[in-house]
Amino acid sequence: MNAPKDNFPVAIACCLAAHFMFAIMGTCAKFLAETHHVAEIAFYRNLIVFIPFFLFIMIPKNRHLFKTNKPKLVAIRAVIGGVSLIVTFAALSQLPMAYATVLFFASSLLTPALAFFFLKEHVGIHRWSAVFIGMCGVIVIAQPSGAVSILGLILALTAAILHSTMYTILRSLKSESPLTITFYFIIAGILISGMFMPWVAKGIAAEEIWIFLLIGASGGIAQLFLSNAYKYAPASLITPFSYTALLWTVLIDLYIWKYDLEFTPLLIGAGLIITAQLYIIYREYINNMKSNNTEG
After folding, report:
1. What are phi and psi of 140, to 5 degrees?
2. Has residue 153 been placed in a domain?
3. Is residue 31 part of a domain?
4. d(Cα 148, Cα 191) in Å, to the nearest integer?
5. S-S: 155 plus which of 52, 73, 91, 218, CB 3.0-4.6 Å?
6. Is 274 a member of any domain?
7. Which domain holds residue 254?
8. Residue 273, CB half-sphere, CA atoms under 13 Å: how many?
9. What's the pLDDT tens digit per position in 102-113?
10. What is the pLDDT of residues 228-247, one digit of tens each?
11. For residue 3, with 0-12 CB atoms within 10 Å meaning exposed, 13-18 middle and 19 or more buried, which class applies?
């Protein structure tokens, strides 16, 4: 299958829709985490999504979706995704959604550092400066006074690293169907979270059924939208539109969870992290332009 051409309007629309659906999923997960282990929530979330996906792919004309041209990358991405879902739910259970979301934004800041240490890539002073500024934003949000859960902070930053790795792999899977990528992500999620079920399973109460159905539907739809977003546009275009997630989570924290958010550290920290992210994107654009001019 050939890689599709970039389609920026479709990619942007998919990104906006994905992060709205992720906000719904996060709200459901945070509510359920009050009475359920996060691994159990992840298990049922994946199981609920798996059933319609499997039935759809079993239709004869859709069975080609079982096949992938890059099985190793798809498998690695699926495993990382399965782990990241549990860690993400755990972070949301410990922090206000807005705080967790801003810390998740740090994922793209961590990419240059990871590339330097593990891939031995050259990272210039501009990007290191941006990473430093972004990490200052994390410190502002963390509030060393102890106002923010340290466990929640660690979980959110761990999730950010996993998200960064997952999104980078997605861009290398442009030739794969988003349905294929999502299907194997769901399978990996069931297997990984299922390993914890003998010890954490409580079962679903009748009044919780609709919440589990909603977390499954919103999560599955969000994954499809996100896969399409990265399929039709580079990460540098997609990333700025992911910041709409902060708007949704602030509103949810205020009107559903009734959190008394400390807006000063939240806004300053978010401003530093987002500014650093945008500067990294700008530097990547400049470097790509220089590379293209040299080749030309």
Report:
1. -60, -45
2. yes
3. yes
4. 32
5. 91
6. no
7. 8-112+148-261
8. 31
9. 888 887 777 676
10. 887 888 776 787 788 888 88
11. exposed
